[in-house]
Write a structure and sequence with these properties.
By secondary structure, the protein is of the alpha/beta class. It contains six helices and 13 strands. Strand 1, helix 1 and strand 2 form a beta-alpha-beta unit.
Length: 206
């Protein structure tokens, strides 16, 4: 069973539907015991960094997320869920992120002819052998919606990048923690394959 964290963020239902399409059992929850008994946990979301952190605090999910990570349960952040895993964001000065991974969330720099938010399809450069990208070809197009981007402190955790006025760290992996800035649930068959790869982590070793 895959637990999807319910913290009143946008775009959670589409992640649930994509996983169900893959035949995965899901539960939308903020219950600690349910989350800690799940096989895997996903933090999706669209919205503002500061509001999201306030909601995670309000629902008691900050400590639960750290416990999930400490227990080695595979954890996937999607879009805003990726950003929340890091230390801070220019979107919400003074608000601390979860700090599970080291890095900053920066505003995409203004440039002539560049629309912000970065919205639509963009191609990925895949690197550093990320487990989410098994059977995913180089230059696969995936779907993005964001105005802020990740600059990870450790380049080795970056498993995919894309270019949009700057180099965006589009996916990271460290231990049992995975995250994508793009939306795999909206990224056609290769996006579904990325979710399928996440769901398969740990199962192939049993």
């Amino acid at each position: 069973m895959i637990a999807i964290l319910d913290y009143d963020a946008g775009n959670i239902k589409s992640v649930e539907k994509a996983l169900q399409l893959l035949g995965e059992e899901t539960v939308l929850t903020r219950d600690r015991d349910t989350i800690l008994s799940a096989e895997k946990v996903i933090l999706p979301g669209v919205g503002a960094f500061g509001d999201a952190m306030a909601n995670l605090e309000k629902f008691g999910l900050v400590d639960v997320i750290h416990e999930v990570v400490d227990r080695g349960i595979p954890f996937l952040g999607i879009c805003l869920g990726l950003q929340l895993l890091f230390e801070s964001s220019e979107e919400s000065p003074g608000v601390k992120g979860l700090g599970v991974l080291k890095g900053r969330i920066l505003r995409i720099p203004e440039a002539e002819g560049l629309k912000i938010p970065h919205m639509g399809w963009n191609s990925l450069h895949i690197q550093n052998k990320g487990r989410l990208f098994k059977d995913i070809p180089e230059d696969t197009y995936v779907y993005f919606v964001h105005s802020y981007y990740l600059q990870a402190e450790d380049e080795q955790i970056v498993k995919a990048t894309c270019e949009y006025g700057t180099t965006i760290h589009a996916s990271v992996e460290e231990g049992n923690v995975f995250a994508c800035q793009f939306h795999p649930e909206k990224s056609s068959r290769f996006g579904l394959q990325i979710l399928k790869n996440f769901a398969a982590i740990g199962r192939e070793e049993k």
